[in-house]
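Today's session is about reading a structure prediction critically. Students often jump straight to the picture, but the first step is always the sequence itself: look for stretches that repeat, for charged clusters, for runs of hydrophobic residues. Only then move on to the predicted structure, which in these notes is written as discrete structure tokens rather than atom positions. Here is the chain we will use throughout the hour.
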Amino acid sequence: MYKKVIRAKRRFFWQTPKSAQCTCKHVSYKTICPHCHNELPREMVENGGMIISIIGARNSGKTNYITTLINELTHKGHYANVGIYPTVVGRTPDEHTKARYKNDFFNVLYKNNTCPIKTEPTNERNKIPLMYKLFSTNLDKHIYLVLYDTAGENFEVKKNIEENAIFLKNSDAIIMLLDTFGINEVHHTLKSKLNLGNIETNFDTIINTIIAYFDEQTNRKDFYKKPLALTFSKIDAIIEHDEKFAHLPNFNTNSQYFDGTGIDLSVIESIDMGMKECLREWGEGGFIQNINAPAHFNGKATLFGISALGKAPTTQNTVTSITPYRVLDPLIWILHQLKFPLPIKKR
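Below is the predicted structure for this chain, in token form.
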């Protein structure tokens, strides 16, 4: 990682510096984040931009989600009027977003049909984010999708939340992936059917730890204003093994806007209500109350159910076919909250 950031001198206060002289006497033209020391797109610094970040609980399948999300955006984003372009972030070409995604994500899942191994907290390579620019017509300010494939345990204790607080504070919106198998009632129902082990971490651990941290901050209201997409993964298993859940409105079909007729926001609303109904049935009504509390997200957080793979991997951790289910929905909802020009159906 970078050892030091040299702050460029400004000739006039309104000008963005183009370069800075290093202590080695050479001039550098790279724009570096002063906190994580990763390279930033100059356009983001000079013109500003909104940032959407994705974080995930342990065992939530975040690596699978990132892989299928980018692939779906690349091939189906045009149905939502969303273009995607990888930025050049990283110290060497093999660390740039396009190369990293292909080698570390796409090839593993789509080419080798193998689910990636668990993300290790000590892996320095994972500290370099994947960063994509999302663009569309009639969009003045670009939106950046920043994907840190950090281990879920990095967010499970308060100390680690403090280390990642700047990352969370500087995000304009957050997609938080939650492990549906970490819900006690779900785990009890599916344990024998799917040969599940014991719950390592309850599904709500990360969000509760984050709330506990920001409740103590003076600027907590700014954080709670951010759009938050609480995204429950592995929903294919629930659809297959829970008859009541499978027949909830819009849970037995993929995203409707793939037919090119536009985005129906009422579908997203029905999914949010359906997820809340299920959580209450599973004895997790307190989770909804905590999220919706006036002192927290005050009803602004929206719930989603997705499946990155479409079905469970084999016992050898392989997958024969990949059929993502509603993986774009959380991002589409967030883009709407950020005033991205989406093709919205009129009611």
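Discussion point for the tutorial: The chain has a mean pLDDT of 83.
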